[in-house]
Amino acid sequence: MKLLIVDDQVSLHRYLNKVMSWRDMGFTKVEHAYDGEEAAGMVDTFRPDIMIMDIHMPLLNGIESLKRIQQSGNLPRTIILSAYDQFEYARDALRLQVSHYLLKPVDADQLRDVLGELIRESESAVRQSIRSELNGIIYSGVIEAESLSIVRKGLEFLAVDRFAILTFTDSLPSESDYICWLQEQAVYKFRCVICCKNRKDQIVLVGGGDDLSNGQLRELSEFVMEKAAALSPTHTLSAGISSIAQDVALLPQLLAESAQAMWEPAETGSRLQDAVWRIKPYVDSSYQEDLSLQSVASRFNIDKYQLSRAFKQEFGVNYWAYVIKVRMDRAAELLVGTNWKNSRIAEHTGFLEESHFSRAFKKYYGVTPKEYRASSVRLD
């Protein structure tokens, strides 16, 4: 979310930066302008979501600047600041659909409350615009350029880095039930949860940060299904979870994946997830064994490509990168805690040749095993 502060007094800019925690409030970018002329130009280029503007400024006062911005069609939600409690200023501000009119000197608590209100209004409007576009994508099965732009900007506004689609099918829970259940969890874990209705299905776009994982999505779907079961134990709710994406253009694909996953046998997805969660501790304890992707996939009776994809989704790291990490961590412990030769450590941590172990160790830590051991001795 972007904020533009417009005032000719440098002291006000400094004061606001000092007393307001912009990032904690949800602003990712804050820019400053020092007259109405500069502000009008910056609104076109910076495209703020919220603007704080003084009325009395050189070159172009606040009211005239707002009129120019309104003509361009890019007027953001605006808070007017004024040292004058005059009716004509307030009247002009209302005509320009200014959100709030505050008197100077600025009361930080009052401004914080007003900004909080505007942020909530902005977020609600953005979610509604995404929901509207998502309904169109669900109906048509394609995403047009205009919809792509609206959804992309909306997710950027909500600071969503990664997203997925969940589909629930059952005729019993109402849309309000789903929204209530989902929001109960979204407050703590997700940056947006947007619900749409499609015949008997509830389709949910779930957005999060870089750490959004398949495990979180599964927890969310299980929470909803538990709520539905408590509402009516005789009804069965099915759920489908798509893969996680960053590109909005993939939304039609995610919708199809989620719908297909909903009708797949339940044990297919759960068996894969269960296997992945058993594979991780197996790697932790069996680092000296053959841990090639093919070998481990065969051991747990799953496809190696499914294993690779599912492991990354669940834990946020590539399977082989995790194997290397476990082996290197153990090798470092052995170098410091024992007097074993490199050849024995290599064999103990799953390397067939000492030379391969030494190259891998240096690539991982930036020093040779000998140098690592020597540095630990000096530190002791």
Task: Show the helix and strand layout.
Layout: E1 2-6, H1 10-19, H2 22-25, E2 29-33, H3 36-46, E3 50-54, H4 62-72, E4 77-82, H5 87-95, E5 100-103, H6 108-140, H7 145-157, E6 162-169, H8 175-189, E7 192-198, E8 201-208, H9 214-231, E9 238-241, H10 251-263, H11 266-285, H12 293-299, H13 304-315, H14 319-337, H15 342-348, H16 354-365, H17 369-379
Helix pairs in contact: 3-4, 6-7, 8-9, 11-13, 14-16, 15-16
Notes on the protein architecture:
The protein is of the alpha/beta class and 380 residues long. The protein contains 17 helices and 9 strands. The chain has a 5-stranded parallel β-sheet, with helices on both faces. Helix 6 runs antiparallel to helix 7, helix 11 crosses helix 13 and helix 15 packs across helix 16.
